[in-house]
Amino acid sequence: MSPLAVLMIVPVVLPLLAAAVLLLIRDSRRRLGSVVNIAATLGGLVVAILILWQVDHGAGHDAIAVHLTSNWAAPFGIALVADRLSALMLVLVGVVSTGASLYAAAGWGRAGAYFHPLFQIQLMGLNGAFLTGDLFNLFVFFEVMLAASYGLQLHGSGWLRVRSGMHYIAVNLLASSLFLIGLAILYGVMGTLSMADVAAKVALVPPADRGLLHAGAAILAMAFLVKAAVWPLNAWLVPAYTAASAPVAALFVLMTKVGLYSIVRTWMLLFPADAATSTQFGGPLLLGAGLVTLAFGAIGVLASIRLDRIAAFSVIVTSGTLLASFATGSVAASAAALFYLASSTFAVSALFLMVEPVQRTRSERHAHAPQYDTLPDEDDNLDDEQLPLVGRAFPVSIAALGLAFMACSLLVAGLPPLSGFLAKAAILTAIVDDTTTGALPASTWVLMTLLLCASAFTTISLVRAGIRHFWSSGGRFAPRLKLVESGAILVLVGACLLLTVLAEPVLRYTTATAAYLHAPRPYVDAVFGTPPRPGPTTPDYSQVETP
Amino acid sequence: MEVLLALVIGVLGGAGVWLVLRPRTFQVVMGLVLLSYAVNLFIFSMGSLSIDHPPLVTPGQSADLQNYSDPMPQALVLTAIVIGFATTALFLVVLLAARGLSGTDHVDGERDEE
Asked: Nearest residue of B to residue A178 by CA position?
């Protein structure tokens, strides 16, 4: 058993243990709760980076680590599989959750009961969903993640949260029903739900059962598309994400990525490009859905005035971009999309965390009292705004916040020189290069136009918000920023800066990931090639036939 | 038996969908419960319907579904029931909170004009 096979259960077990410990910590010792929460989250990040490093540096079978839970041989037990895609997603979870847990330590963690245990359970669900190699286990981890998210969404209470939470829960319960129906049909057709076994057996499905297989896959995809917030299944997202408290909204950015991950994973295992039949079944539909979602999100961003709504619609924009890029079916576009996935997740989470500090520049309540050198007399006939600004030093916190906001805007809109631009440029290059033979298909033109429009609209919207908050009526009060809050934003923006500097190795990693995703054979071989550990009374498993 | 089960699933599912689309929160939760019944029966039916077949492979008989019933869907349905039960209970709590905060049982918290 390789060290990686042991290491990879830590992302699931560590949050579970941390949640159990956090439950025992009394409400009066909230500082301790925050510290344990941050420590566990940081531990998860370190383990995720270790897994990523191991997966990236392992060759052949070592690149895909398989953990057979309870030592059951595949396909009978539930296998946990850490491959390039899973490892990348684990690191995303680690970074975003570190930012969110730091931010929560500034105050939101104390706004209600059981924030920290729910936070850790949510992390367990997220990590588990990315690691599992079994479709039904994916459902279970989805439910773990969703059950925690229902509690987190309501954190802080209030009518807006309860109303949007009610809609959010109802939609997700319906999606879970669809998930189960899809699973039942797939099981009926193939008699297995292990992802590797499904991928191996899908070619053997007789033509008479193909329709049923397609129906099952389509119903399953509907459940994932609801989670990925694809139009028209995304009406729940904006109210729920804007009502949720800031660290929760930042964490929820990851939840749409779970939907996308599940679509990519199952679609590429079930209907790979090199299959003889049902090649990339539903690809045009996914592409169309992605394009419409992208357009919907872009218009929503343009129509939004409030910063939290801009951030929520940006989540929809990224979902649309990712789905459309993956659905083009080209390796280069998928590689660029994976890079965009990392960059946009960090950027949009940072934007969610920035909503509250930015709003503090407009109100006196959370800010320091303004200290003007010369306050105007009441008799002075001056514009209210004018005189107080004369001769006043620019407060450091506003400068830092303004810079962070600028970086975030550049990242979300995809403008140079940061990683958002590199990601969008990579996607555009990939979809143009992909069809060098002959004319570009119409969908490519639409995707290009929409990507550029989305960037323009996001720029307009964020510049408008920036002017409003920092220049016009806002900016008069230096916002009081706690150290952990600035640290949280710094972690996420810093991760994007790191992505910008290390763009080449990261893109090389995502290119290898995309190539690996488009040929699922190594995944199947790795899962079936992992023998259970022999015990004192274990029968010889070597006779188990592998397909 | 197949026809009867299909009818039951269809009626439960149809009633569930209709109720979920109603404007009262209690109707929505009843709809979700009926839908989960339909889904659970559907999963159960995927393991082939048979009577008097234990989920065990008997030595000497070939291991196909003529001779034993598939235990997998039964395990799946058990998990689905537990999860569905828990999430529905959680949803009920949110419904009560919404009722308390808005004073009405409309899903959007708005009183009807009538």
From this structure: B39
- Residue among B36, B86, B91 minimizing CB distance to A169: B91
Q: Give CA–CA dist A40/A19, Å, rounded.
A: 9
Tokens of A371: 């200290």
- Output the domain CATH number for residue B88: 1.10.287
Contact (Cβ atoms closer than 8 angstroms) between residue B53 and residue B69: yes
Judged on CB neighbours under 10 Å (0-12, 13-18, 19+), B102 is middle
Radius of gyration of chain B (CA): 19
pTM of this prediction exceeds 0.90: no
- Judge: B84–A176 Cβ closer than 8 Å, yes or no: yes
Q: Is B11 a domain residue?
A: yes
Residue B80 lies in a domain: yes
**Could you report the predicted ipTM of this complex, rounded to two decimals?**
0.93
Helices B71-102 and A135-153 meet at what angle, rounded to 10? 10
pLDDT of residue A323 exceeding 90? yes
- pLDDT tens for each residue of A419-466: 889 999 999 988 887 655 566 788 888 888 999 999 999 999 999 888
Q: Is residue A36 part of a domain?
A: no
Q: Which residues of B touch A188 (CB under 8 A)?
A: 46
A151 belongs to a structural domain: no
Q: What pLDDT, on the 0 to 100 scale, is given for residue A90?
A: 93
Domain that holds residue A439: 282-368+393-524
Chain A residues within 8 A of B97 when measuring between CB atoms: 154, 157, 162
Question: What are the residue ranges of helices labelled H in A132-206?
Answer: 135-153, 159-190, 195-201
- Over the stretch A335-372, which tens digit does the pLDDT of each residue have? 999 999 999 999 999 999 988 888 777 665 544 444 44
Whether A347 maps to a domain, the answer reads: yes
Lowest mean per-residue pLDDT among A221-225, A434-438, A527-531, B32-36: A434-438
Is residue B75 included in any domain, yes or no?
yes
Tell me the per-residue pLDDT of A499-522, one tens digit each, with 9 for 90 and over.
Answer: 999 989 999 999 988 888 888 888
Q: Which domain holds residue B15?
A: 2-50+69-102
Q: Tally Cβ neighbours within 10 Å of residue A397.
A: 19
Q: Name chain B contacts of A235, Cβ cutoff 8 Å.
A: none
Determine the average pLDDT of the residues in B80-103: 89
Residue A105 lies in a domain: no
Question: Among A545, A108, A93, A118, which residue's Cα sits nearest to residue A341?
Answer: A93
B108 domain residue, yes or no: no
Q: Which tokens is A15 given?
A: 């949050």
Query: Number of structural domains, chain B?
Result: 1
Q: Is A32 in contact with A54 (CB distance < 8 Å)? A: no
